[in-house]
Amino acid sequence: MDDSVDIYLTSVWKYEDAGVERVLAELRKQTPQGQFEFEPEAGWFKATCPASKVADVQAHFRTIHTEIERDLQTQDGAKVIASLLQTLVVHALSLLTSIIYVQIPLDSKWLKVPSPGELPAQSNTEKKAIIDYQCPVRFDNYNYTQVWKRVKEETPDAITIHTFLSAQDMATISESSGVFIQCDSTDRLAYLGGPSKQSLSQASTMLDNMFRRYAHTMPPPKHLLHAETEGIHHVDVRYMAHVNEAMLTSTILDPGHFPGNKMNTMFEAIFSKAVCLRICIFDPFKRTEVSFFGPRVKPLFHDQAHKSPSWLKDEEYAPKALGVTAPSELPSTNEPDKSQTPPKDSEANGWEKQLDLLSLESKDLEKMAEATNGRPALKPASLAPPPENGKYGYQMRLLWEFVNNPVPGPKTDASKSSKLITTLDDDNRENTLIDIGTDETTPSVAKSVEDGSRQGDQPLIDLPVQALSVGKSSSGFSSTLSRKLCRQIKLLTADLPYCRGRVQMHAALGRIYMMDANPSGLATNGPGERASGWAPTDIVTRLDTVCVSPGSVMFTKALSIFANDIENVVGTGTSNPLWTFKEKRVIYEFKCQRFSFTSDGVPRAHNPFVVEIDGTRPGAFTYNMRRLEDARPPIWVHCIRRHWDVRIAVMYSPTEKLEKMYGDFAQGLLRSMVVPPGPIGPGTGPRFQVGYDYREMSATTGPRFCTKILNARVRHVGRHVSRDGESFLDVSWNRHMKLETKPDNSDSRMGILRATAAADDPVHGVFGSWYEASVLSVRAEEAFRENETLGVGGAAAWTSSAMQESMSRAMFEPALDLVEKMDGVGVLIDNGQGDTMWTPPANQMNMALVPASGRFW
Question: Polar residues compositional bias: what residue ranges (predicted)?
Answer without folding.
Answer: 330-343
